[in-house]
């Protein structure tokens, strides 16, 4: 068991990003801390581009114990860490920093674990021996490919508007499982049990140009984005008869739980937190 947390002085944690005011992380970690009666202070800190290293050092100097890192600083956090987990090295990005007693900074990436936990534990989806399609080839996708491939799908296909970018990712992850790349037009005639939207199209109110016949019977359509209403991708999937549809709120909570475990050595219960957030999303 980890050492009990000092009840007189809360341990300080935060999430840094730009923008970050909308982040649900402070609320999530408040619920986690309540489960263990931990006395923590968790805030959202807006950081201007270019100021990330100074902001981290200032937070640590003021007694901070750890940070979550969101867009656009995950690559900056990767460079800043003195020591990296295997999954952070593979992802090439860091979303969790822990300030260690010896003065070093430990960097980890919990995004992929969060996605896999949400898919398998919360949504009851089997990934082993299933054809999986991942849309997009940006940083969000790179962060989840390793954990997805460790579930041993039949094949993992990366579809992206720019095929060259998808090919670069495939080279990095090729020896972790069967991985293919293609453009959106090349998806015609192919069908998948799990389709994960990792593009930023939902932020623009758009859907990638996808064939309507993409889904097998009983397939899951999953958008890594989340919001107070279904994303355009989720609405598109529903229009074409998909019944299992989810946004990324569960992934957000699950990756946060993984961060909490890194910092405190205990793993929070996530389902009650997801349920509470669903009511208020």
What strand line-up does the widest sheet have? 2-1-3-5-6-4
Outline the biggest β-sheet: 6 strands, mixed
How many E strands?
12
Q: Which CATH architecture of the largest domain?
A: 3-Layer(aba) Sandwich
* Average pLDDT over all residues: 94
General shape: globular
Annotated CATH homologous superfamily of the largest domain: NAD(P)-binding Rossmann-like Domain
Task: Provide keyphrases for this structure.
single chain, 281 residues, alpha/beta, Rossmann fold, six-stranded parallel beta sheet, 12 strands, 22% strand, disordered N terminus
Ordered list of secondary-structure elements with their pairings:
Blueprint: E1 11-17, H1 25-36, E2 40-46, H2 52-61, E3 64-69, H3 74-80, E4 83-84, H4 86-91, E5 96-99, E6 105-108, H5 111-122, E7 131-135, H6 139-149, E8 155-159, H7 163-173, E9 179-182, E10 192-197, E11 215-223, H8 232-239, E12 244-246, H9 249-264, H10 271-280
Parallel strand pairs: 1-2, 1-3, 4-6, 7-8, 7-10, 8-9, 10-11, 11-12
Antiparallel strand pairs: 3-5, 5-6
Helix pairs in contact: 1-9, 5-6, 5-9
């Amino acid at each position: 068991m980890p050492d009990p947390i000092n009840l007189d002085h809360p341990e300080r944690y935060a999430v840094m990003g730009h923008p970050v005011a909308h982040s649900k992380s402070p609320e999530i970690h408040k619920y986690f801390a309540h489960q263990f009666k931990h006395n923590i202070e968790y805030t959202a800190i807006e950081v201007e581009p270019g100021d990330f290293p100074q902001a981290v050092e200032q937070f640590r100097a003021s007694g901070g114990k750890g940070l979550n890192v969101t867009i656009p600083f995950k690559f900056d956090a990767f460079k800043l860490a003195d020591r990296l987990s295997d999954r952070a090295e593979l992802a090439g990005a860091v979303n969790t920093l822990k300030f260690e007693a010896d003065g070093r900074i430990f960097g980890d990436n919990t995004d992929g674990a969060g996605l896999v936990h949400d898919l398998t534990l919360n949504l009851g989806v089997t990934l082993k021996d299933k054809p999986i399609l991942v849309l997009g080839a940006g940083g969000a996708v790179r962060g989840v490919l390793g954990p997805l491939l460790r579930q041993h799908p039949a094949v993992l296909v990366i579809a992206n508007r720019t095929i060259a970018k998808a090919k670069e990712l495939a080279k990095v992850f090729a020896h972790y499982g069967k991985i293919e790349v293609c453009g959106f037009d090349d998806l015609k005639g192919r069908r998948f049990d799990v389709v994960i939207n990792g593009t930023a199209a939902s932020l623009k109110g758009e859907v990638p140009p996808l064939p309507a016949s993409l889904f097998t019977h009983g397939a899951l359509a999953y958008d890594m984005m989340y919001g107070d209403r279904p994303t355009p991708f989720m609405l598109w999937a529903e229009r074409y008869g998909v019944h299992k549809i989810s946004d990324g709120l569960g992934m957000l909570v699950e990756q946060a739980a993984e961060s909490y475990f890194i910092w405190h050595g205990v793993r929070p219960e996530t389902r009650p937190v997801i349920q509470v957030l669903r009511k208020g999303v």
